[in-house]
Here is the input.
Amino acid sequence: LQARLTLDPAYRIAETDPRIYGSFIEHLGRAVYGGIYDPAHPSADEDGFRADVIELVKELNVPIVRYPGGNFVSGYRWEDGVGPVSERPARLDLAWHSLEPNRVGLNEFARWAQKAHSEVMMAINLGTRGIEAAKNIVEYCNHPGGSYWSDLRRQHGVPNPHKIRVWCLGNEMDGPWQIGHKTAEEYGRLAQEAAKVMRWVDPTIELVACGSSHSKMPTFPDWERVVLEHAYDEVDYLSLHSYYGNRDGDLANYLACSLDMDAFIRTVVATCDFVRAKKRSKKTMYLSFDEWNVWFHSNEADKRVEPWQVGPPLLEDVYTMEDALVVGCLLITLLKHADRVRMACLAQLVNVIAPIMTENGGASWRQTIFYPFAHASNWARGTVLYAPVESPKYDSKDFTDVPYVEAVPVWNEADGRLVILAVNRAEQPLTLQVDLRAFPQARSEEHVVLTHPDMKAVNTKERPNQVIPVKHSLDEVGDGKLQVILPALSWNVIRLA
Ligand code: AHR
Here is the structure.
């Protein structure tokens, strides 16, 4: 089998926004308590944050982290999480049937994010709350001082404003599971008014309206249309969420699920542009794919977790090699839409459907999906080139014309480096012919491969290095051509200097 890719600097999709490599920390399971925050852990710093986890987050190079939810945010009172910790209330979290002790709130999280070299993407509660609380939290976080809420922040020991730039207007408001679920009409009006007032408090913020929770929602894509008919002028981004899983044990079909993400993005773009045309607007609506990942392994175990615990073990998917391939395909798909997808969040970051796992008070390790994300985030920054892959194809249960090779080239003009991210979905090695004649200076640097003979292989506390990337030899570029062998069922990073 052979595939072909032609790279030319004249054909560009867009410059990547670094925030396409965002992630997510929700007050859910052991993401906060036992994940990023564990004062009893030997590596805990003066704020109770695990230094080992911060190091792993830095390895992933995550420029922005969404917080504090998720479903959690739709019942959250942000005021519960600020001020003296001893005076903060414990509350029932009805989204996850857990107990929220409020030991970590927005000031602590902003501090953690700074230590992890990330920005905060703040989500507000538009489930049980409204414009008043939305206005106040922006004032508390971003106003310098001299007003009630900004002075309260100063009293709480934070003299300088957090300058939080990105704000999500609620979470998954189209979903009946959401606390305070709304119709598109109800939500569209509320998002419009909340956005307007939040921007009056701080005109520099960027606002994200909720799109559909996934592409199979019965209200998709009318939800997008109606919400934007209300809020188009007031918001900057529309959100998308999507999770995938191999529930039927059908590998070929599972590996093709990025085609669903691709179609989802295309439909949302079309809907945004439809509303733009209807409004005779000159503004382009951008997308924030602020929840995406594999999520299915833990579904059954979660039904057995006792309610009302602090930091229960929820959504603790243990990821396989095949999940890492899917995450690779999803990353490539997001990059191919870098002209419209400006932000994206791998959901989530620690313990909860996460690339990083921890044991309370103990070890931390990298799941299989850690590697494709870290590779893309560290190396695939710059200009995404338009380079359709010519690849043999297959049909699966839900998809037709699935290319065996999924690939995207990214060119970093600043340092002259090129990187090709590629997944081989075939159960046999495949030769990728790369035409580099338009890049006469290109020289082979390295070929990093993630694969395993057992697609169900996982990394665990006991065996954290079962699935790790290895370097393969890479031929020199000759006559503007490079030939690379992509091993069967593999994630590949081809780096050119
Ligand atoms: O990331 C886990 C959950 O998935 C989030 O809380 C919610 O927004 C989505 O349904």
